[in-house]
Write a structure and sequence with these properties.
13 strands, 3-stranded mixed beta sheet, 297 residues, 8-stranded mixed beta sheet, alpha/beta
């Protein structure tokens, strides 16, 4: 009669706790990758220390060689770039982002320097700020904060686009943003944001502003659309420009000042309003008839 072998009772399997970021206890693969990553981090730290302290060239070259070999080991273990996620990209062309990252799928992820990539991204015209991070084992995440167009800046007869910090967005096509107000003057970009905030306090009148000229690095002259191809120049004071702007808006509501035949409104003196009328072109004199010197026939 064959002998029957009774198997010992099976122990219940240990459940792994998922904490959202880590699984505990870790899987063998995760432990292996973690050990490799830790070793590479140690080597990278030693290499950085060598670079900062300036150890002999022979030792430095040896550590760099060890570093390159360690990165290759991590790549063999699966620590390579498979996905690149970019958030916040609206105006920045994708090829420019990839060129700044200098990263391809399959590259060793531990050889990628997020700080260097951040600096390269923030050199792009549309990028104001960038955040770059590695997410092991295979993902690089990029978050961009792009510049917000504020106005067109006229300088030396050419137009450029500026953002809310007064920074020129190089390479942008001004024609795409023709609806934005235009500022003129060497220091106009650095004072444009406060001016446009002031104009927004009277939005109905502010929509009629077509250009703002910075005068003597002290104050603004505004050009307003008066309809039918006409315009009115408004001279704001150096101080209390907001009070003068509110005063003009009230005069427009009560007296329709811009509809009258005026070319300049001077608000530089607080208690006075100086208006310059449009010069009317005098009618042309009627042509005199030619004197007939011939003999009657």
């Amino acid at each position: 009669m064959p002998r029957v072998k009774i198997a010992p009772p099976r122990r219940p399997a240990r459940r792994r706790a998922n904490t959202g970021l880590l699984t505990w206890p870790p899987t063998p693969r995760a432990m292996r990758i973690g050990a490799i990553a830790g070793g590479v981090a140690l080597v990278l730290g030693c290499t950085l220390h060598v670079w900062r302290t300036g150890l002999p060239d022979v030792l430095a070259d040896t550590l760099h060689s060890i570093n390159d070999g360690a990165v290759s080991v991590t790549a063999s273990a699966g620590l390579v770039v498979q996905e690149i996620f970019v958030e916040g990209r609206g105006e920045t062309p994708a090829p420019q982002v990839l060129a700044a990252l200098d990263l391809k799928r399959g590259s060793p992820i531990l050889a990628f320097d997020p700080a260097e990539a951040k600096a390269e991204l923030e050199r792009l015209p549309w990028v104001k700020e960038a955040a770059v991070e590695r997410r092991l084992p295979d993902t690089v995440r990029v978050r961009l904060t792009e510049r917000r167009p504020l106005a067109l800046w006229q300088r030396h007869g050419k137009l450029a686009l500026i953002d809310r910090d007064g920074v020129e967005i190089k390479g942008a096509d001004p024609a795409r943003f023709s609806a934005l107000p235009m500022v003129v003057g060497d220091d106009a970009p650095h004072h444009a944001a406060p001016l446009l905030a002031l104009l927004a306090t009277e939005p109905e009148l502010g929509r009629r502003v077509t250009a703002a000229v910075r005068v003597g690095s002290r104050r603004w002259n505004l050009r307003l659309d008066a309809g039918e191809g006409a315009s009115v120049d408004v001279q704001l004071p150096e101080r209390n420009a907001g009070a003068a702007w509110s005063r003009l808006a009230e005069l427009e509501r009560t007296n329709r000042l811009l509809d009258r035949s005026v070319s300049v409104i001077d608000l530089r003196i607080p208690d006075r309003l100086i208006v310059r009328a449009v010069r009317e072109t005098p009618p042309a004199a009627p042509a005199r008839g030619r004197r007939n010197t011939g003999r009657p026939t």
